[in-house]
Every structure is written in C-alpha cells, then in structure tokens.
Amino acid sequence: MKKIIFAGVIAGLVLLTNPVFSPAQDGGAVKPSGKTPAAKWSGEVIKLPTPQTTGGKPLMEALQLRQSTRGGFGPAVNLTQQQLSNLLWAANGVNRERGNMRTAPTAAGWNNIDIYVVTSDGLFIYDAVPHALNVIKKEDVRATSGLEGAGMMKQDFATTAPLSLVYVADMERPGGMRWEGEDVGATWTYANAASIAQNVSLFCASEGLACILRAMIDPAQVAKSFNLPSGHRAILTTTIGQFPQ
Ligand SMILES: Cc1cc2nc3c(=O)[nH]c(=O)nc-3n(C[C@H](O)[C@H](O)[C@H](O)COP(=O)(O)O)c2cc1C
How far is CA 183 from CA 3, 180, 188, 215, 231, in A? Predict the structure, then answer.
C-alpha cells in the first residue's frame, strides 16, 4: 500500500514539474497564424504561460557562455512549461504589439519561419501571437524525424535529447523577390532562420542549457515526418539538452 501511495506521489510530482503538455484550458480556440497548414493539425492547442521577459544573464555574460554541445548531454529532462514559454518567446515571440513585431528580425517582413517543437511527448508548432503550441501529433517522432542526420554526420543525440526546435521556412513567401539583380529569396530566408536560432543559442546560454545549431539534417525525411506542405522546408534545427551534472 505504501508503495502505491509513493508511486502516486512521484507521478504527481512529475506532472507538476513537467506540465508542458497538459491540454489547453481555453478549449483550443486559438487560431493558427499565417500560411501554416492548419488542416493537418490535431486541432488541440496548448496555451503557454505568459513569458518572463525580464531577468536572465546579462547579454555580455550570455555571449561569453554561448557554445555548441554535440550530445554528451545530461539526463533528458523536459523543460518546464515556463522555460519552454520563455524560450519560444526569446526565439521569435511578439515583443511589440503594433504590427505583430518579433524578437528576431525578418527580411522584408516575410516572417516566413515556423518553429516546430519536437519532444518525447509529440510534435507541435509555435503560434507566436496567442503564444501557444498547436498540437500536430502526440507521438514521439524524434527517432524518425530526420533530425539525426546521416552518414558521417549522423548525430544520434537528437533522438534522445529532450527538445529540438526545427526552423521550417516557407520558401515561396519571398515570391521571387530580387535585389540588385539577384534572387534573394533563399539567402534572406536562411538569414531569417539564423536570427531566430541565435536568439535560441543566447537564451540557452543564459538559462544554463546545452544546445547545438545544426544544418546537417535530412529535409526530405523531416518533410515526411512533419507532413509539411509543399514549398516548406526544414533548414536548421537547434537540439537542446541539459549539461551533465
Ligand atoms: C549554419 C550552421 C550550421 C551548423 N550545422 C552543424 C551541424 O549540422 N552539425 C554540427 O555538429 N554542428 C553544426 N554547426 C555548429 C558549428 O560546427 C559550430 O558552431 C562551430 O564548430 C563552432 O563551435 P562553437 O559553436 O562551439 O563556437 C552549425 C553551425 C551553423 C552556424
């Protein structure tokens, strides 16, 4: 009997400390943004807590600590709901209400990068305006999502790390825009994703989380696993974990 009560207390504590994926309190009324493929989602929405937009390490200290960690993470512990909320806001959240302006700059105002959130609990897409996660599927796709790369650059740690953020670009959004005679769609889109990724790297440095930004993933496999619409492409990912204790 004592054992059952003890197990129940432990389960309760786990839920309390990792409540990221509890169902939305608002009945999932949040609408998806932009041209993202809402029809392919489950319809369930997880409202994130209000992000804490003060505090953290001073910028110069975070820059001093920024580094890549390729696996060798500590035990895979899910981020708390508040940490994930803060992380996604830092990545590309709304920091000025007027005009839906974001923490990361975006060329020509395209705002054409979606952040997909991959954890052991499932696959989600971040919707910045309501600051919520749209549930795509509650399945652990970490091992089948193409994030581990291939060949010499197989990086298995992505299949067990607690979290990967995948920056998926709408490559058609630039609409063939040219600048000084050159098609700048792809280069400026990569710059948009990199701006978000750098915000994430600095947040991780500030928060004491281990992370690595990677391009050597398998975009075709990601497209299949995430059921991406045509014209959307995974271009970078940040895998995040804990440093060994
Ligand atoms: C655009 C970009 C793509 C990267 N892709 C990978 C990758 O696929 N695999 C990897 O192990 N590191 C990747 N990195 C990380 C770099 O290898 C790393 O930043 C570099 O070795 C310097 O180390 P530091 O980040 O610790 O300063 C990438 C970095 C950038 C900016």
Answer: 66, 9, 10, 22, 16
| Domain range annotation of the chain | 2-242
Could you identify the atom of ligand 1 that is nearest to the CA of residue 69?
A: 26
Angle between helix 185-207 and helix 81-92 axes, rounded to 10 deg: 140
pLDDT digits (tens, 9 = 90+) for 109-137: 999 999 999 999 999 999 999 999 999 99
Residue 200: which region, alpha, beta or left (left: phi > 0; alpha: psi -120 to 50)?
Answer: alpha
Tally Cβ neighbours within 10 Å of residue 49: 14
Q: 194 C-alpha vs ligand 1 centroid, how far in Å?
A: 12
> Domain spanning 2-242 has what CATH number?
3.40.109.10
Q: Is the CB of residue 64 below 6 angstroms from any atom belonging to ligand 1?
A: no
> Which residue has its alpha carbon closest to ligand 1 atom 22?
68
The pTM of the full predicted model, rounded to 2 decimals, is 0.87
pLDDT digits (tens, 9 = 90+) for 55-66: 999 999 999 999
Distance 126 CA to ligand 1 centre (A): 24
Residue the block writes with tokens 């005679």? 181
User: How far does residue 69's CA lie from ligand 1's centre (Å)?
Assistant: 9
Q: What is the pLDDT of residue 21?
A: 33
Residue 38: its pLDDT value, please?
59
**Pairing relation of β-strands 45-47 and 132-137?**
antiparallel
Instruction: Give the span between the Cα atoms of 92 and 127, in whole angstroms.
Output: 10
